[in-house]
Each structure stands twice: as structure tokens, then as C-alpha cells.
Specification:
The protein is mostly helical. The chain has eight helices and two strands; from the N terminus they run αααααβααβα. Helix 1 runs parallel beside helix 4 and helix 5 packs across helix 8. The N terminus and C terminus are likely disordered.
């Protein structure tokens, strides 16, 4: 959770709906939407809205990971508009569980070019690595130059974790 401080020196309570996508939904909504409203609406209204966010986070997480493309897309649109308005999220956010989930839902909807630096920031790697990936065809070059944002989003949406262990036979 980010440490936003109000004018009174208070900070958001460390409540969440758990780990993963649902937990991050609550944390991000609290940090970026709800907590900044405390000076205007008061802590009691913040607590009511946070309770509602916690109650809805599991449903929203299920919509974001569901099989129905239209439901997934609308959930991403609603969430990202709430969190980021008309702007883009910070590049590092795409590497979070929620960012990766949103990337998977958006990958087929996006047809824009981004710079090698923007792709590098989103993936958390160097610009030189992006150039190598484009040269190898691992990331697609956009027709207008740069990199296809959809290709970066698809890469972010790939499952992460340790590589599967495969059994090897020893000669003998």
C-alpha cells in the first residue's frame, strides 16, 4: 500500500481483500481513489467506501479473469478509468498481478505503437533488450514504428513463475 498522508498526518488503514488481483484492487482503489478524498469527505465516508470496495473486489477480480471477453473488457475499462482517469498507469504497475490481468484483457483490443523505452518500462527491462526482442521477432514492430503495444501486453499477460522442472535421465 502506498503511504499517502492526509493533511492531518493520518494514513490509510492496511486493510485488503487478500493477496492477488482482488487484494490489489482494494489497495489501488484505496491509494489512488478513496484515500485522496478523505480531506473532502472525511474518514467515516472513506471507511464506508473501502468496505464496499472490499465487498466488490472478488466479483470484479472474477470478471477480470473470466472467459467472456466483453465482460473482461468492460471490467478493465471501468477499473482503469476509475484508477487512472484518462491517463495511463505508471509503467511499473503493468508488472503487478492486477496489471498483468488487465494486460491480458486489453491485448486484443489495442492497436497502437509505443516507443522502445515505453515497452522497456512496462516490461521492467532495458531498452536494449527490447531492441533485441524486436530483432528476433519476439516483440512485433508496429507498422508506424516502435513496438506494438498489444505484443507487450500479451507478453505481460503470460503466466509467470518458476520454469517447470523436467525429469532428466542420467546415462547409465
Amino acid at each position: 500500500m502506498t503511504e499517502n498522508l492526509s493533511a492531518h498526518g493520518e494514513q490509510p488503514a492496511d486493510r485488503s481483500a487478500g493477496s492477488g488481483v482482488a487484494g490489489q484492487i482494494v489497495q489501488d482503489l484505496d491509494a489512488y481513489v478513496l484515500w485522496p478524498l478523505v480531506p473532502l469527505l472525511g474518514i467515516d465516508m472513506h471507511d464506508l467506501m473501502l468496505d464496499r470496495a472490499e465487498a466488490r473486489s472478488r466479483l470484479l477480480a472474477a470478471e477480470l479473469t473470466g472467459a467472456e471477453p466483453r465482460v473482461r473488457a468492460q471490467a478493465v475499462i471501468d477499473l482503469m478509468n476509475s484508477l487512472w482517469g484518462q491517463g495511463d498507469p505508471p509503467a511499473h504497475w503493468w508488472n503487478t498481478p492486477l496489471g498483468r490481468t488487465c494486460a491480458g484483457a486489453l491485448a486484443s483490443q489495442v492497436d497502437v505503437a509505443i516507443t522502445h523505452q515505453e515497452a522497456a518500462d512496462m516490461l521492467g527491462i532495458t531498452r536494449g533488450s527490447i531492441a533485441q526482442m524486436v530483432a528476433r521477432g519476439t516483440l512485433l514492430r508496429h507498422q508506424d514504428g516502435g513496438v506494438e503495444k498489444a505484443a507487450v501486453l500479451r507478453r505481460l499477460a503470460r503466466p509467470t513463475g518458476p520454469a517447470p522442472i523436467t525429469a532428466t535421465r542420467r546415462p547409465g
